[in-house]
Amino acid sequence: MARFKRILLKLSGESLMGKQNYGIDSERLADYARQIKEIHDMGVQIGIVIGGGNIFRGLSGAQKGFDRVKGDQMGMCATVINSLALSSALEAIGTKTKVLTAIRMEPIGEFYSKWRAIEAMEAGRVCIFSGGTGSPYFTTDTGSSLRGIEIEADVMLKGTRVDGIYTADPEKDPTATKFHDITFDEIYTRNLRVMDLTATTMCKENNLPIYVFNMDVVGNLKRVMDGEEIGTLVHN
């Protein structure tokens, strides 16, 4: 019995690079697809938002002279590329998907609506939500919060390259200690950057818990669904 019935899985675009410096690493993509299939076969309804930082990040583009709005639109397009790649990898191993886009771009993907998404998930498809929120100045973290709330997910699973939330960056501070669970209020008080503040506040106000774990360790996604305490739960 899976721990959660319906999830919103947030994946980092950077993680798709694997050992590369840019783009999509085919091994990492296949690992992600197999892990997602594993929990899909348990009967979990899955919605996914994936970032685009392995291809283009709007904010960094703005710092290099791009118009911010156009830069963010380029970032949205990057998330569509990643979503199509993940969809292809899942379909190749027998898991049906539906790519929905926040801006119209048929036939690449279907225009997003809550009702289409829920209907598809209940029919056994993995829904991949691309294009962020469809508006500039919002991150894919905020897009994840929005989609998770809309589809009435039980939890947002934030797959990262670290195994939870720490008192400080564990890659920089060897004395950092890990939280097994933490409240949204503590996140604010300690000034911890789990996600951007807009995304975190949306989850808090709509009572959507966040579970942060290391997605890059193969098998971890199923461990989360089996109830193993391998990450950090953020809750009200």
Features:
236 residues, two-stranded antiparallel ribbon, 37% helix, nine-stranded mixed sheet, 19% strand, single chain, 11 strands, globular, alpha/beta
Polypeptide structure, described:
With 236 residues, the protein is an alpha/beta fold. The chain is built from eight helices and eleven strands. It has helices at 26-40, 58-63, 68-92, 114-122, 140-150, 184-190, 197-205, 220-225, and strands at residues 6-11, 45-50, 97-101, 110-111, 126-130, 155-160, 165-166, 178-179, 181-183, 210-214, 232-235. The strands form two sheets. The protein has a nine-stranded mixed beta sheet with strand order 4-3-5-2-1-6-10-11-9, with helices on both faces. A two-stranded antiparallel ribbon has the order 7-8. Helix 1 (26-40) links the parallel strand 1 and strand 2 (45-50). The radius of gyration is 17 Å and the shape is globular. The two termini are 25 Å apart. The model has no long low-confidence stretch (mean pLDDT 94).
How does the SSE layout of this entry go?
Blueprint: E1 6-11, H1 26-40, E2 45-50, H2 58-63, H3 68-92, E3 97-101, E4 110-111, H4 114-122, E5 126-130, H5 140-150, E6 155-160, E7 165-166, E8 178-179, E9 181-183, H6 184-190, H7 197-205, E10 210-214, H8 220-225, E11 232-235
Parallel strand pairs: 1-2, 1-6, 2-5, 3-4, 3-5, 6-10, 9-11
Antiparallel strand pairs: 7-8, 10-11
Helix pairs in contact: 1-3, 5-7
